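Data availability (excerpt). The following record was deposited with the supplementary files.
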Amino acid sequence: MTTNTPLTQPHPLQDRFGGQVAARLSAGTAELPYDITERLRAARTQAIAKRKVVNVRTAATVQASGAAATLTFGDEGLTFWNRIGSAIPLVALVLGLVLIHSVQNELRASEVAEVDAALLTDDLPPSAYADPGFGQFLKSGGE
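Predicted structure:
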């Protein structure tokens, strides 16, 4: 069982308001000269010819299956290029994350390299840092 629910149906209140506006505008045309009424008529026909055709389609459908119901959105008419265009932000996000990851790895590697260079160029040999007495030496203030 499928129930279609168009979201773009005209409302009676809007139709009534539009009819009242049209009646009010048409009421004053009886006193106008012929050339002005003809220009108005030509403008109306041009406006009607140029108006956008409203594509009324089902925006959402409710599909009932037993005790469960599912809200599905109709085919949005996605072409190949629309699908590619909608995937571009995802690709940009993934590339950004990969770039951030590689930059962070480079920063960590350069920090480790700086510490290693400082240890190797220091006056103390690297074995002094591994000596358990060195920690005690540092805690006592290095006197």
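Summary of structural features: The two ends are 88 Å apart (CA to CA).
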